[in-house]
Structure formats: C-alpha cells, structure tokens
Design brief:
Shape: elongated
Low-confidence stretches: 109-193
Number of strands: 18
Oligomer: single chain
Order of helices and strands: HEEHHEEHHEEHEEEEEHEEEEEHEEHH
Distance between the termini: 36 Å
Amino acid sequence: MSPSKQLLVPWLMTQINSGKYPGVQWTNVEKKEFCIPWKHALRQDSSDTDFLIFKAWAEVSGNGRAQGDPSVWKRNFRSALRAKGFKMVEDNKNETAHPHKVYRWPDESASRDSSQDILQQSLQGLSLSPEADPTNTAFQTVPEQKQLHCQPVIGGDALLGQQQYLATLEGAADVNAFPEQLEYPLKGAEGGACDEQLAEQFLQIMNQTNNGDRFTTHFKISVYYRGVKVLEQAVENEAGFRLVYSPDLTGTALDYESGLTMVYLPNPSNVVDQTQAKLTQCILDKLGCGLEIGVSGYVVYGHRQGEVKAFWSFSRFDQMKQPQEILKLQPQPLYLLKDFIQGILGFINGSSCPPCSLFLCLGEKWPDPDFRPWEKKLITIEVLLTSIEILKNMAMENGASSLQSLDLQMSLEEMMEMC
C-alpha cells in the first residue's frame, strides 16, 4: 500500500523546526512568521540547494514530479500555501544577496484541510456532451501521452505525443450542451475580502489551465456555411482535433495514430442556394487530410494537411485586411498561453480582455483584403478554448478590480516567464 499524502501544515512545521533546509527558518516566532528562500532558477548563482524545500513538498504531496522542473515545484508549493491560508507578508525575491519571501502562519480555521476544487466548482453544469458527468469536465491529469515516430517541431520543442483521455464523442453534437453563462462561487462580489477570494480562485483555475508543462483545455467547435451554423461539437481531447470531410461520416472519432479527435464536417446537401452548395462541396472534396488544431506545450497550433488553404484570426470582425494563412509545411503557433496571461495583466490595468476563440476560414482569405465579412464566407469555424473561456468570463463578470491583487499579478508574471 502506498503511503498517504502529507498535509502541508504539520509537514511544513516539522521542516522549519528541523533546520535541514538552508534559509528556511522562523523570523518572528510570536507572529508565526517564517522565511523561504526564493531564488529565480535562471540566476547565475542558482543551485540545487535553493529548491530543496520545493522538491521535498513535490515528493511528499504527489503534486509535482521529483525529477521535474524546479519552477513547477515552486509554483505548486506557493499554491499549496495559498490554499491553506498562509499570507505573504514580505516579498524580497528580487534582493541581490538574499532573495526570499516571508509568510505568516494561518489561523486554525484557514489551515483546516479541504478537498474543494475551485475549477470543478466553476465547471458544475458545463456538460460537454449529452451523457457527460459534470464532475468529469474538469481538467484532470492526462495519462502519459504516447510519443509519435515523426514529431513536428514548434519553436525548437517537439510536439507532445497526443492521446485522448476522455471518451470518444461520437455523435455528441448537441447544441444545448453548452450553457450560455457560467456561474462562479463569488459572482458579482465587490471589494474587500471577496475580491481577494476572487483573485485566489482565478489563480487556482489559472494554475490548472497551466498544468505543469503544458496548456490544458478542451474545445467547442461551431461550423458555419455562409453564416448559418451547421454543427456545434464538443471535443474533450486535450491533444486537439482535426477537421475532415467524409460524405458518409458525421460526429467525431478518435484517430489512434495521431491521438487527435477527427471532427467530420457536415454534407452541404441541405444548403438551399445551389451555387453556394456546389462551391462548398468543392472545398470539402479537396480538404483531404484536413486541418489540425492541436496543443503542444503552452501553444495551440494549426497545421494544414490537405490542399485547401486555411486562414485564421482572433475575431469574426477583423478589419486588418491582412490574411493570415495556416501553413502546410509545418505546425504554426496560433494561441500562446503567455499571451493570454499578458492580456489578463493588461485587462487588470484597463485594457480589453484577451480573446478565447480562434476564427478559421477554409478556401477563402481571412481577414478579407476587401472587407468581405466573415459571415459571407463559404466555410467558417469558431474554435473556443473552454478553459480560457472560463477565465475570461470570470474576469469580465466580476470586473478588473476583482483581480487587482498584488499576489495574483506577481504570480501571473512569474507564470508568463515559464510559458
């Protein structure tokens, strides 16, 4: 039988009193304040001893791999402190001689062990398929992903092997499967402690979206034939999907070779305008191996497989007049998690909230050089990143002021550096 996981509060008390971790010590016993060395891993004077306390917690908690990245250990340790009510009273991580943070011990009520999962709360009622259990829609840990024999590369990093970790969604295109608005535990709260709790919840969800060494999300796909929605499809596959066409197939199926979910575009036989139907059919017939939208590390990428050109943007109202083509020769980064984090930091300081969708166009240029609207294109697809949608809705519904937490902003900046 494997040993049970340690609880942070008693474990940390033992480690501080042991004196075996350099720099981990009490600074004010009466106030229960203690010091944790907090040196950035990229500093020239950084060494393995600077991360011993973070690695030790990773080993006993099961929330990090003992052979993993020190930055991940540190982030998991910091998240555990927050979850148990520890308060940071000094942030001296940028000191030259002795970078460190000082935390204050939580009171008994705050340190009580809890099994509540904020992300799962936010996802209650978000059924991604007609038969899905709401508790299964949270972004759970994916099984070890298989490695492909021929791995394309983005930014010098091979694409991760891809494997679907939830059930294949054959025939799961239910337009009623997505509620129009998500509910959050503290929705509409203003000021004071509630704002701190909202910022804390936002960071916990962000930590699960940024799951150690990869971007974690599901997808909601809406397909339009000249502005008319003909398919709405959920894809509960963190590896991604491929848009393909086969006259006799509908719904989705898992491609075991690539690990991607195959999403079959509908036949245009129900299109009333015969000219439109003929042109749409021509594009579909030349789609070949389709258009791939997948996740590699912290990047959502696009990769055209067939002969039909594909274009993309962050908006259906894009007026930039500069078409953005998705390449065929190699995968192309489309959505970067660090850009979303930077966008949220901008939103906190008064800018607009970052996007959570990709807008694709098959066979026609987008954005259109002649300002022809997205709705007039023959085949368009909106790809919504569901984990980003949750975070964006939370930010928009509660306002920028709810996220104006120094601790949240510092954590997001540190997370952005690691993406």
